[in-house]
What does this fold into?
Amino acid sequence: MALMDSPRCSATTPRLKAPASARATQPNFRATPPMMSPVGGQATPTPRVVYSARPASPRPARGGVSGGGGSRRNVIVLVLAGLFAACATPRATAKASAPDAEGVWRSRGYGWLLTVAPEGMRLHHETAAGCYPDPSSPLELKELFGAQEPGPSEDVRDFLSAPGETRYRFDRLTALPDRCDTPHVWSAVELFDVFRATFAEHYASFPQRDPDWLARLDAQRSRVTPGMDAHALFTLFADALRSLNDAHVELVADEASSDTLTYEARPTGTFAMLEQAAVAMNRPPNEVQREWMRAYRDGILQTVLHGEGHHVANQRVLWGFAAPRVAYLNLLTMGGFVAGTEEATPTLTQELAALEPVLDEALAAFAGAGALILDVSNNRGGYDAFARAIAERFTAQPRRAYTKWATGAKDVPPQVFTLQPTSRPSFHGPVYVVTSDVTVSAGEVLTLALRALPNVVHVGTATRGAFSDMLVKPLPNGWTVHLSNEHYTGADGEDYEARGLPPQRPLDVFGDGKDLWHAHAKALRALADSLPPPGAKSTP
It folds into this structure.
């Protein structure tokens, strides 16, 4: 998102870190695997979520399927902290709390029922298997739905957090369905049906990832009994989800059960090689990944940048010259540029205020470069807003970057996101963007946007293939499921979900696992040395 310090304000919605004890997560945050800090090794997931409510407060349930609130161990829950106030523009956008917006609204896609009243908003989740309240506060809901734009008719509205954000189209209802507020104790069978319906109605990638997934899940229903214990039901759900191999699919237990009920996706690609290395060395996987990240950082600073690089923005950005006229910029995340604390989460404005001067300094220094390597080979995602703000540093004219729409959003036109040139320091020469299978989420969106530019060549290996925002759905017992519910298409009209964005110029970034600690630095050193020498005409 481009906020106060930028000439533009275009964004999808944000995602920020918060202590694991935080109770709320919020819109358009993409969850990706935890990234180990190159220095301290602290896990720093950078999720992106379409919507996640504060987990429900404890409630009784039959059959040992307990309710609860909170998050599982080692999962950072996300809070929205008034991030859009600085994104206001002169454009006329009515407040969602205006009298003509009062009433009950049903979203197209997303499975939401939104009630707007003078005292604030309420949200319910609706599936074919049941309807239940969301525990988020009116203030939290206002941050997600606090603005509106007119739809094609009087009884159709687009609710959004602020102008330029993701639009959510709603149709007016005469009243909230009675069943939505009826007190109910959910059995394991009913929870299974809600879980199944949530994926059936919203998951976007069955054809690409696992066409028979729903049929195999249905075959498991006979194993579920009303009194099934929580551990058995959680295990059934977790086993089903792993076959999707989707970085944006998660299952999170309530806090009371987080020590015993955990879900981990199976590692693939580079992460699988790291796990195999840990087994071979008889060392904990987290310890091995921390060491690998340190080697990644040191390889950039010493081998690629010859000991003269900059490591800034909360250690998320590295830059310098890889050769006399070959600039190098590495982004480890699309966020986290300001260190958070247990008490305070940086706002998007603060994040951008930390990133923009870093980009200004680097791109000003790169003014005489003949080519620029933009390395996102280890980018774990974050904000689409930052992805667009960064991509706009490389375009000389407006460019259609990508388009998105939600599964089940009937008759809703896809939302187009466009890159606009910036007045801040920029680079319009040849750009070589480097990716790998680790590049995920908003890191992939950055690559997708850059691919729309004629001065960019995509180098490396295919990205992870997890473009969609995460739709985060609390289950009625306090557990939460995250799923991919949106489609992203590039300027070429292609949807690269699941398969990843393939490079135009192959480069084996992390090797075959035999030299994981040095493969990246060697590959980037070779790329820099292959680019035109000083004085030569540089074209992608």
